[in-house]
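[Discussion] Sanity-checking designs against the backbone

I'm trying to build intuition for which residues belong where. Below is a structure token string of 235 positions. I'd appreciate it if someone posts a full sequence so I can compare it with mine line by line.
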């Protein structure tokens, strides 16, 4: 049975993968979920991380994961809600069921994971345990093309506020709201310049910015119910 593990959802690529590697490099026990088999998943497992293949849009898949987790994990130091589904409103309007999938990934799954993991978090040997959710900096202002996506992320942000009250004082619950983190390899130079021009600080901060925010929240003795915003658009 694994003790004082960090659970990261959606760690098969990009930010989740980076966070998992950083925790492993520090000697931290890592448990992670992934949706799709890929070389990075095998790499994490080879480094000692425990992986569960889960589709958060499938209630049965999530149920199976929540039943199996306490069979392998005795206690949790933290849960990081990184799993995300991105879609434009045009895609939501064209694909029946996509709105439900957004809500499943960003609201239903984190809600149920928090409830199921509470006993494991309360068993940590650390002074406090942590839940950290990754939302989106645009939740505060909205966006004409991403109403459905941002509404689902706003639901996740709201969950952190309620769970911060419900799980205190032994479990801290916080939110990281990133803007631009890292470009996709296929993003054009024109798109990159456009996105950078929108930011008050026009840099591509990279996954390290998320890692630094996660560490800040976990290292803080009393930060709970808070939002760390990363990135700000120009006035």
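Best answer:
Here's mine. Compare freely.
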């Amino acid at each position: 049975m694994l003790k004082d593990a960090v659970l990261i959802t959606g760690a098969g690529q990009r930010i989740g993968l980076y966070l998992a590697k950083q925790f492993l490099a520090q000697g931290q026990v890592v448990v992670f979920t992934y949706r799709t088999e890929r070389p990075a998943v095998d790499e994490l497992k080879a480094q000692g991380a425990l992986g569960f293949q889960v589709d958060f849009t499938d209630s049965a898949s999530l149920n199976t994961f929540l039943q199996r987790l306490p069979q392998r994990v005795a206690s949790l130091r933290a849960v990081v809600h990184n799993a995300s589904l991105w879609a434009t409103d045009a895609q939501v309007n064209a694909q029946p069921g996509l709105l439900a999938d957004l809500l499943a990934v960003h609201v239903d799954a984190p809600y149920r994971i928090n409830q199921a993991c509470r006993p494991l978090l309360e068993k940590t040997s650390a002074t406090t345990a942590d839940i950290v959710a990754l939302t989106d900096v645009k939740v505060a202002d909205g966006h004409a093309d991403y109403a459905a996506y941002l509404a689902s992320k706003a639901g996740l942000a709201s969950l952190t506020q309620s769970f911060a009250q419900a799980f205190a004082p032994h479990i801290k619950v916080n939110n990281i709201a990133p803007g631009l983190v890292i470009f996709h390899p296929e993003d054009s130079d024109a798109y990159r310049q456009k996105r950078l021009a929108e930011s008050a600080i026009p840099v591509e901060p990279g996954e390290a910015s998320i890692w630094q925010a996660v560490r800040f929240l976990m290292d803080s003795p009393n930060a709970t119910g808070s939002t760390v915003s990363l990135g700000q658009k120009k006035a």
